[in-house]
Amino acid sequence: MAKRRAYSNDGLGPTIERLMAETGLTYRALAEKTKLSAGYLNHIVHGNRPVPSNEVLERIAKAFDVKAEHFREYRIRAITDKLEQMPELIDRLYKRLG
């Protein structure tokens, strides 16, 4: 198997689907490892539920033997949390993007 990337550039659903394909985990097996329901996991993958909490993302990451940071949504939250503590950086970044 090829070396797994540290970070996924895809959204949560496609990333989980890719990890399931790479590891051979089914929704039921993933549910057992994460203590979440297979139906809930299916809804997350197909975008029928909002992005789960970081705690849930950490459980899913652990099931796939990746860091939670593998998920783009987890990284975005970390960046957002830091930006909320640094309003001057928000303004500088906003100006640079505009």
UniProtKB/TrEMBL annotation:
Pfam families recorded: HTH_31
Sequence ranges assigned to domain HTH cro/C1-type in this UniProt record: 16-71
SMART domains for the chain: HTH_XRE (SM00530)
Domain of life: Bacteria
Gene3D superfamilies: lambda repressor-like DNA-binding domains
InterPro entries: Cro/C1-type_HTH (IPR001387), Lambda_DNA-bd_dom_sf (IPR010982)
GO molecular function: DNA binding
Protein's recorded name: Helix-turn-helix protein domain
Native organism taxonomy: Bacteria, Bacillati, Actinomycetota, Thermoleophilia, Gaiellales
